[in-house]
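Sample intake sheet
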Amino acid sequence: MKERTLRPMLAMSLDWHLTRALEQNDFSAVSDKLRDQLIERGMPPRKAAINAPVMLDGMDRALQGEFDFKRIRNELCAERRSRDAASPLTPAAG
């Protein structure tokens, strides 16, 4: 898994820039620019054309608070604890 670090300033910048871009432009224009960046970073053009509007919509919905990431995290932690409790522990060799 890719190591993630909390970067509040980046999150605030993303929120501000994405909000402004969508307020001042059509969704399709912003999506086209995102598609272009995905292609620049090596994604095949067809895949970028499919993924860009989906990614943009997801980012916008997340920033609007439509997803409860705290609940998602808590559910995943509970599932992991349940799996860990169900798996037998290997006794330490002594």
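Comment: The mean pLDDT is 89. Helices lie at 8-24, 27-40, 45-63, 69-86.
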